[in-house]
Amino acid sequence: MRMYDLINKKKNGEVLTNQEIEFIVSGYTNGTIPDYQMSAFLMAVCLKEMNVEETSALTMAMAHSGDMLDLSAIEGIKVDKHSTGGVGDKTSLVIGPMVAALSVPVAKMSGRGLGHTGGTIDKLESFEGFSTSLSEEQFFDNVNRMKLAIIGQTGNLAPADKKIYALRDVTATVDNISLISSSIMSKKIAAGADVIVLDVKTGSGAFMKTMEGSFELAQTMVNIGDNVGRTTYAVISDMNQPLGIAVGNNLEVIEAIDTLSGNGPEDLLDASLTLASYMLLGAKRVATIEEARELLLNTIKDGSALKKFAEFVTAQGGDASPVFDTSLFPKASIIEPVYAPKDGYVSDIHTDEIGMTSLILGGGRETKESEIDLTVGMKIHAKIGDEVTTKTPIATLYANDPEKLSAAKERFIKAYTISTEKVKAPNHIHGIVTKDGATKF
User: Fold this and answer.
1) pLDDT at 157
2) Which domain holds residue 374?
3) Do 246 and 384 sit in the same domain of this protein?
4) Which residue in the list 168, 230, 285, 409 is annotated as catalytic?
5) Residue 138: is it exposed, middle or buried by C-beta count within 10 angstroms (0-12/13-18/19+)?
């Protein structure tokens, strides 16, 4: 088998076999296939596309290129959730405790944030002492006992994807549905869950800006999961404005605690309930989404979800006191309101700019080595469709550096478009994708 022949085959629009795709992935991972040949192959994929079977084969080849987490030591049907990333996206902190409180095992592998999208691990480190560096034995034991544990991503999880993505990033081959979906799904499949629920964000603060592209990506990933024997659902959720009110690490943790206490914002609760409902459905805990939603709401009403969150934090070495008294979290030294520049209605929010505002304040990473400030961020007071005046605070910024605050404030104001006519607020959820197709709302 020669890489030259396989590049030529894909360039001519032919379908590659599983063995040929495995040859390409393993050869590039071990260094026998050079960058220039892999670059040519990736460009051929972008120009000629891959079918579902090829995309599934690519996903599995990348998944098997490193560690494959075996969760068979955990009792029951294991569930996991993955988000394509957004601003103010703290659903994992709400979903995990609710689902675990209903005795469905959540065995989750999470990462840190890079750029303006926050990482679940960074947020959880708002709890003093919290650690995701669990041994495999501890991880399994925690899930079996409490039905919830989160560990950091292993360095050898889907190494082929890491190497291929770095090449895609510099060869203009990022924006291909097969390559994007196989990159995401290879890591989720390697993480070992039986049920995967995907939160595919769409809009100005999302990786996928258009509704059409978001549904296409979601359907491709669901098809991959189904092809390799994993129950997979995708929820298309809105990212044309931040999710919830809080943006920033410990501010988002506080909002998640408020939500688990029954006092959270409507959009965050709705998104969390929808995602968690499909986790319960996939785990065969319920027969309908309506039943799942009722059970999940009960975990908030009876306090079991909040109690589960505290139990989870304690089990991973953290001080859980702030779960029951959020005033114990460290606070930013400067808290300053931002006012609307003119009267009118919020008609548009450039959500990625809101994320960049948080990054400027120190709440995100520009590189993997960047230190983040867990206390900075913002609370959003005006969303799309809301009426504002020049005396209306549209947000409150939390900072520790006056210069960063000044730059962040200027950028934040530019993220808002205010018009004279009221516009309708976007739906929280735009649709559901299953192996049987898409339902659009």
Assistant:
1) 83
2) 331-419
3) no
4) 168
5) middle
